Amino acid sequence: MLPGDGIGPEVAHAGTAVLQQVASKYGHKFRIEEKLIGGAAIDLTGSSLPPDSLASCKESDAVLLGAVGGPKWSDPNATVRPEQGLLQLRAELEVYANLRPVQIIDALSGASPIRPERLQGVDLLVVRELTGGIYFGDKTRDETSASDLCVYHTFEIERIVRVAGKLAQQRDSKLCSVDKANVLETSRLWRDVTNKIMRSEFPDVALEHMLVDAAAMHLINRPADFDVIVTENMFGDILTDEASMLTGSLGMLPSASIGASKRGLYEPIHGSAPDIQGQGIANPCGTIASVAMLLRHSLDLYEEAAAVESAIRDVIESGARTADLAVAGDAVISTVDMTEAINRQLR
Ligand code: IPM
Ligand code: MG
User: Where are the domains of the chain?
Assistant: First the structure.
């Protein structure tokens, strides 16, 4: 478990509290080691991903992460940054497929800026490529210019499309591949490879290509039309913050980052939210839902995963609201109280 920075420790501890509840209810024993990452690691060791943290992650069945980053480490001239630790961890664990499900809880429709009738039937999954593209290309900087290289290799596109194709088969068999093929060469390769893999290996899945600007619009305009979206690293980052608003809050969205092995990295999609850090008001639901994904993908604990997911849903439906979910008149509860309510429901 890597708490990280800002609200990271608050939500990550909520996640482990729910894991402990699952352990006692179902008779499991989880061995949890807490390690440094991000700014907290820079302060204590000078590195954003100390070797000891990485080694512990590699020896674990799963990694639960809070969030990294904050103003303290955001000096544009800094040589080490908290985010580098997270990117290095994703690369080292080779978790190239980042699954970000977007499911609506009806009781939260008032918290979403989108009109409730457009939210009807929304249930989509973004499969974001996580270890390639502009995040990992060479960077340059001189007095008057800067560059970030965006590279994609065929094998990277093939393997992420396979993940998305398989998941689409288990859902509504619809895949929307999002790119910017009218401008970017990497997107033209992406489109070619996607066509090839989908036609030969997933002929039963309906494939559509969409330009990222149009996708940003349609996510708001007709979100229920999407089933599985597959896209490259940066587009997936941006579109999932946008998509989170369908649920009412960025704080609701979980993620699972997986690769060839069962080991996965689980984190909420939100950041370290330094503006609310230390106040005990962060929404732990995205992290707790990430724990459910961890139970399912890395530990094969399907019943436990489903129980955690329904506990979140039940508690929200019964009216529990952290500050980010509250609309006028709602009583607001703390991170700890929301976590305790979910644990009570689990019990
Ligand atoms: C995310 C975050 C990270 C990303 C940051 C913290 C590097 O925004 O997980 O979506 O861009 O991948
Ligand atoms: Mg992001």
Answer: 1-95+261-347, 113-247
The answer to whether the CB of 4 is under 6 A from ligand 1 is no
For residue 344, give every residue at least 6 positions away whose Cβ sits within 8 Å of its Cβ, in sequence order, or none: none
Per residue in 79-109, pLDDT (tens digit) is: 999 999 999 999 999 999 999 999 999 999 9
| 213 classed as catalytic | yes
Question: Does the Cβ of 271 fall within 6 Å of ligand 1?
Answer: yes
Q: What sections of 49-177 are H helices per DSSP?
A: 51-59, 82-92, 116-119, 154-169
Strand 264-266 with 62-67, pairing? parallel
Catalytic residue among 43, 204, 213, 275: 213
Nearest residue to 257 via CA among 126, 103, 106, 154: 126
Active-site annotation holds for 179: no
| Whether residue 242 has its Cβ less than 6 Å from ligand 1 | no
Given 3.20.20.370, 3.40.630.30, 3.40.50.2000, 3.40.718.10, which CATH number is that of 1-95+261-347?
A: 3.40.718.10
Q: Is residue 256 lining ligand 1, measured as CB closer than 6 Å?
A: no
The reply to whether domains 1-95+261-347 and 113-247 share a CATH topology is: yes
CA of 237 to the centre of ligand 1 (A): 6
Distance of CA 136 to the CA centre of its chain: 18
Q: Which CATH superfamily is domain 113-247 in?
A: Isopropylmalate Dehydrogenase (3.40.718.10)
Q: Whose CA is nearest to atom 12 of ligand 1?
A: 237
Is the pTM here over 0.85, yes or no?
A: yes
Q: What is the pLDDT of residues 124-146, one digit of tens each?
A: 999 999 999 999 999 999 999 99
Of ligand 1's listed atoms, the one at least distance from the Cα of 90 is 12
